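Hey, resending since the last one bounced:
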Amino acid sequence: MRRRTTQPPASGELPLHLRVQEGLRARLLDGTYPPQSRLPSEHALCAQFQVSRITVRQALAALQNEGLVQKIQGRGTFACRPRAAQNVSTLQGFAEAMAPLGHDVRNRLHQFRYVTAGESLAGRLQLPATALLAEIGRVRVLDGQPISYETTYVPEVLGQALAGADLAHRDLFHILEHDGRVALGHADVAITSELADEALCTLLQCHTGSPVLRIDRLVFEAGGTPLLYETLRFRADAFQYRMRVDRQGRTALRP
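The structure tokens again:
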């Protein structure tokens, strides 16, 4: 009797339940299935994707864990309002990432001032330690709720150009690309956690000592020159970063 072996999907091909999951996620996010609408039955989804019911159930369970759908016993599966989450593997502004998910994004300009770079920021931005930087502090408000505080440092010349920009309603990346004709390239990102102090909690309307997700991001122009450095502090109870990682050098299982 031959032993049955399991072969992984071909390189670049997603497992069936992930293909169904990604297909349904796309429809949930593009409005094909608007919030509170009922998704097709499991039987109908099996026919649409040409997969088994267990595969459909795996996909729906994963989407429910993401907060994109809710299964109600005896009634079916319903679309939910997408949770606030951003793909950390893509260089995007906050509003740029949130608006397509149906969220309303507003900014509150907290401060705009000039500071001396100092050794740490100067090293990151490849400037003299005595160089002046514009420090821009903004509260990001998502669907009426303060969700993050963003501190951005840019060289003085760039800061002067941004001083007259609509920082209360536009993403900084959008301003740089469309008004300043700056070609953004990539960013180095570090993700850590910390406890919010009283000043931050006043801005984010949380309790002192609440956990926050800290994102440190050094953004480069397309040519490789450091452009800006920013620290983003998100309320951990209201936001999450996501990314997909693929296994490299995957080989077939042997019998």
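The chain has a mean pLDDT of 87.

Sorry for the duplicate.
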